[in-house]
Amino acid sequence: MLSVDEKASIQALERARGYVHTSSGKLVQGLKSTYKRHGTVNLFAALEVATGIIGGKTTQTKKRADFQAFMDEVVADQPADGQIHLRFHAIVYMAAVVASRCNPKSKHT
Questions:
Q1: Enclosing domain of residue 102
Q2: pLDDT tens-digit map of 54-91
Q3: Among 5, 19, 27, 59, who pairs with 66 as Cys (CB 3.0-4.6 Å)?
Q4: What SS3 state is found at 69?
C-alpha cells in the first residue's frame, strides 16, 4: 500500500546565524529574525506503508504534469505483477492520473 500526498508552496528560507552578546555578557549563538527568500518549492511524497520507504520529488511548479511525472516514477518502482493500493488526499484528476498509470488489477481507494 502506498500513501501519496503533496505539500505545495514550501518557502525556501535562509536565516542568518550569528553570535550575540547577552545582557550578562555571555556570547551565544542564535538565528537572526530576518531571512532571505529563495522562492518556493512543491513536494510530492509516497510512503510505502509496509516497508517505511519514502519516495519524494520537489518541483518549482505545481502543475498536473508535475504530479503525473511523479506518479510515473512511483508506479515504475512497483513490481509489474503486483497490485498497487493507494491512499491519498487528492482532487479528482489525481485519481484519474493514478488509474491511467497502473495495471487494470490495481485498486484505488
A1: 2-9+42-108
A2: 889 988 888 888 888 888 888 888 777 766 766 666 55
A3: 59
A4: helix
CA proximity to 11, closest of 38, 32, 31, 33: 38
Cβ 42 vs Cβ 57: under 8 Å: no
CA-angle at 102, arms to 100 and 106, nearest 5°: 120
Query: In the chain, how many domains are there?
Result: 1
Q: Are 39 and 70 in contact (CB under 8 A)?
A: no
Is 21 a member of any domain?
no
- Grid cell 538565528 in the structure block, residue: 31
pTM for the complete prediction?
0.60
Report yes or no on 35 lying in a domain: no
